[in-house]
Write a structure and sequence with these properties.
Elements (H helix, E strand, L loop, with lengths): L2 H24 L1 H8 L6 H20 L2 H9 L6 H25 L1 H8 L5 H26 L3 H32 L12 H17 L3 H4 L8 H35 L2 H38 L6 H25 L1 H4 L14 H17 L1 H5 L4 H25 L1 H26 L6 H20 L5 H24 L5 H9 L1
Helix pairs in contact: 1-8, 1-12, 2-8, 3-7, 3-9, 3-11, 3-12, 4-5, 4-7, 4-11, 5-7, 7-9, 8-9, 11-12, 11-17, 11-18, 12-13, 12-15, 13-15, 13-19, 13-20, 15-18, 17-18, 19-20
C-alpha cells in the first residue's frame, strides 16, 4: 500500500476517534458550565487541576513515546525489548510519583492552595500516573498500526466518562431528592470532586484493555538500551515541558497572578471558552498520532522530504478550513457553554491560531528528531515558554485572560519561526512557504471581513459566513486541489 495513503487512512481512524471523542466530551462542557455557575469559580478549579495533570503527564512520560518509536525502528534493536524497557521505566517512575504525592500531600496542598480538598490532588495523582503508563501502551498500538484498537480504547474511556458524569450530575440528584437513604454517598455540593473521581474510575477500567500488551513485560528491562534511550529522550523531556507549559502555564499561574475567588471565576470563563478552540487541538492530535510513526518509519525513503513538504501544505489548508468553520459558526458553537461564560469568547480566534502554530511547529520538529538533535526542540520551546510566561506575568494583571490567549499565540509563533529558520539550514525541507502564508492570510482576512459585515439576523449571518468558507475552498481548489483532484494521480506523483 502507498505509504501516504496508509497515513491518510490511519489519520482518518485516529481522527475519527479523536473528533468523536472530543465531540462527546463537549457534551460535558455544557453539563459542567450549566451545573457549575461561572461565579462559583468551581470550573476554574477544574481548569487549574487539569492544567497541572497535563504538565505532570509530560514529566512522567519524559519523551519516551517518541523515543520508543525512534529505537523500535533502528536496526539490530528488538522492538519488543524496547517496548518492555520503556513501559517498565515509565511505570516505575509513575508509581514512585504516586508514593511521593501520598507522603507529602499536606505540603503539596499548601503550595497549590487546595488545603480544603487534598483528595483532589490525591485522586488526580493516580489518574496522571495511569495516563503516563497507558501512553506507552497506546504508543505500542500506534507502532503496530493497530489504529482500530487504539480508537476503541479511547472511545471506551469517553463513553464511560460521559455515562458516569451524566449519572452524577443528572440522575443522582433526582434519586437523592426522592430516596436520600439510598444515596448516602452523594453530596450535592461536591460536584467538582465527582468530576475527578469519575476520571479515576474510567482511567482504571481502560487499563484492563491492555492485558495482551502487558504480557510483553516479560521481555524485561535492558539497562544498556535504557541508557541510550535516556540520552536521546532527556532533550525531549525539556521540549515536552516547554511545549506543555505553552499550553497550561497560563491556567496554572492565573490563580497566583489573580488570587482569590475572582481569579477562579476568570480562569473558569477562560477555560470554558478555550474548550471551543480545542477543535483545532484534536485535529492536530489526530494528525500527530498517525504522522509520527509514519515519518520515523519512512525516514530512509529518498522522497521523504518532498512528502513532508506536501503534507505540511495540506495540513495548513485543512486547519484553516477548521478555523473558518468554528469562527463563522460561532453563533452555534457558543451554545456549548453556558451564557454566563460568553464574555470570554473573544479569546477563541487567538487560541485557535495558536493551536495552528503548534501544529505547524510539530510538523517542523522532525528535522531535529530524525538527526538525533532533539536538544534543538528544547531550546525553541524554552524560548517560546519564556515569552508566554513573560506576557502572562506582565499583562494578565491589566488585561486578564486576554493576555493568556496572546501569550500562547506569541509563544507558539516564536517556536514555529525558530524551528523553520534553523531547520532550513540544518536539514532543509522544500516547504511552499509562500502558499502556506497565503492560505493563512486568506483565512484570517475572511474572518476579519466577517466581523465587519455582521448582521442582526442569525440565519442570514450564517449564510453569509458560509459563503466566506466557500470562497476559501474555491481559492484552495484553483491554487492546489485542482491539480490533485485525482487522488490516485496524487499518490502516484508522490510515490515516484
Amino acid at each position: 500500500m502507498n505509504p501516504l495513503k496508509k497515513l491518510l487512512g490511519d489519520t482518518a481512524i485516529y481522527g475519527l476517534s479523536s473528533i468523536i471523542g472530543r465531540f462527546l466530551n463537549y457534551l460535558l462542557v455544557p453539563l459542567y458550565t450549566y451545573k457549575i455557575a461561572a461565579e462559583s469559580g468551581g470550573y476554574g478549579v477544574v481548569t487549574n487541576i487539569y492544567a497541572y495533570t497535563g504538565l505532570l503527564l509530560v514529566l512522567l512520560t519524559f519523551g519516551m513515546e517518541t523515543t520508543f518509536f525512534r529505537f523500535s525502528n533502528k536496526e539490530n534493536i528488538n522492538p519488543d525489548r524496547t517496548f518492555s524497557t520503556s513501559l517498565l521505566t515509565v511505570g516505575g517512575v509513575a508509581l514512585f510519583f504516586v508514593i511521593l504525592t501520598t507522603i507529602f500531600i499536606t505540603p503539596i496542598c499548601n503550595v497549590l492552595n487546595y488545603t480544603a480538598h487534598p483528595e483532589y490532588i490525591e485522586i488526580m495523582s493516580i489518574v496522571v500516573a495511569l495516563d503516563a503508563f497507558q501512553a506507552i501502551l497506546f504508543s505500542r498500538l500506534r507502532y503496530e498500526k493497530r489504529a482500530i484498537k487504539f480508537a476503541a480504547l479511547k472511545l471506551l474511556f469517553i463513553v464511560l466518562n460521559i455515562g458516569l458524569n451524566l449519572f452524577v450530575f443528572l440522575v443522582a440528584p433526582s434519586i437523592y431528592q426522592r430516596y436520600p437513604t439510598l444515596m448516602g454517598w452523594y453530596n450535592p455540593d461536591y460536584q467538582v470532586g465527582y468530576i475527578f473521581m469519575v476520571n479515576l474510575i474510567c482511567t482504571t477500567l481502560v487499563t484492563f484493555g491492555f492485558i495482551p500488551e502487558l504480557k510483553l513485560i516479560r521481555n524485561g528491562m535492558d539497562f544498556g538500551l535504557l541508557k541510550k534511550m535516556l540520552k536521546y529522550t532527556w532533550p525531549l523531556l525539556l521540549l515536552g515541558l516547554a511545549g506543555i507549559l505553552n499550553q497550561v502555564a497560563d491556567k496554572i499561574c492565573y490563580r497566583y497572578i489573580v488570587p482569590g475567588q475572582e481569579g477562579e471565576v476568570q480562569l473558569g470563563i477562560y477555560g470554558a471558552c478555550v474548550k471551543i478552540a480545542m477543535i483545532m487541538a484534536m485535529i492536530t492530535q489526530a494528525f500527530r498520532y498517525a504522522y509520527e510513526p509514519f515519518v520515523f518509519g519512512n525516514d530512509k525513503d529518498k522522497n521523504s522530504k518532498d512528502v513532508q513538504a506536501v503534507v505540511m501544505k495540506y495540513f495548513v489548508i485543512f486547519t484553516m478550513v477548521a478555523f473558518l468553520a468554528v469562527m463563522m459558526y460561532m453563533d452555534i458553537f457558543k451554545h456549548i457553554i453556558n451564557q454566563s461564560y460568553w464574555e470570554g469568547l473573544k479569546v477563541v480566534p487567538i487560541v485557535m491560531m495558536a493551536e495552528v502554530f503548534m501544529g505547524i511547529y510539530f510538523n517542523l520538529s522532525f528535522w531535529y528528531k530524525l538527526i538525533d538533535k532533539t536538544w534543538w526542540g528544547a531550546i525553541f520551546s524554552g524560548i517560546g515558554c519564556t515569552v508566554l510566561l513573560a506576557i502572562n506575568f506582565i499583562f494578565v494583571p491589566k488585561f486578564g485572560y486576554m493576555a493568556c490567549a496572546w501569550g500562547g499565540f506569541a509563544g507558539y509563533g516564536i517556536c514555529m519561526v525558530l524551528s523553520y529558520l534553523v531547520g532550513q539550514k540544518k536539514a532543509p525541507v522544500p516547504y511552499e512557504v509562500g502558499k502556506i502564508l497565503l492560505y493563512m492570510a486568506l483565512a484570517v482576512g475572511l474572518y476579519l471581513i466577517s466581523t465587519l459585515t455582521q448582521v442582526e439576523n442569525t440565519l442570514i449571518g450564517l449564510v453569509i459566513n458560509t459563503l466566506y468558507i466557500i470562497v476559501f475552498a474555491i481559492a484552495a481548489y484553483f491554487l492546489d486541489l485542482r491539480k490533485e483532484i485525482n487522488i490516485n494521480k496524487f499518490f502516484n506523483y508522490l510515490k515516484h
